[in-house]
Design a protein that fits this description.
The chain is mainly β. The chain has strands at residues 13-14, 17-20, 25-31, 40-45, 54-65, 68-75, 85-91, 96-105. Strands 1, 2, 3, 4, 5, 6, 7 and 8 form an eight-stranded mixed β-sheet that branches. A hairpin with a 2-residue loop joins strand 5 and strand 6. It is globular and about 50 Å long.
Length: 110
């Protein structure tokens, strides 16, 4: 074998999330040229393991409008989530589509 062999994987794609501490979270992103509509659960945990402490859950809305799917992630109160957590997005009865780190920037305004 020469070079790097291709790998076929079912692992989720990495997408880190970032927001300012104590601010409400309202993030949007699009998955291009795919119908990923459905019901999803997004959780934030202290470590990248389902056995890790659950910090909070994000509200997820996935809307397909050909040819793309728009996702909205919301969390009314982000105060329970410290910097350095982990999140993932799992389709109900299906695969974990996305996941990554949670980066929480300091709030400097009083």
């Amino acid at each position: 074998m020469r070079g790097v062999d291709p790998v076929l994987t079912q692992e989720s794609a990495r997408l880190d999330l970032q927001w300012v501490a104590f601010d409400p979270v309202d993030l949007e992103f699009w998955v291009k040229d795919c119908d990923w509509s459905g019901t999803y659960k997004a959780q934030v945990r202290a470590a990248p393991s389902r056995k890790s402490h659950l910090l909070d859950e994000l509200t997820v809305v996935a809307t397909y409008s050909a040819p793309d799917t728009k996702f909205t992630l919301k969390l009314a109160d982000s105060s329970s989530i410290p910097n350095g957590g982990y999140w993932d997005l799992q389709e109900a009865g299906g695969p974990t589509r996305l996941g990554g780190r949670v980066i929480v920037s300091a709030d400097v305004t009083t």
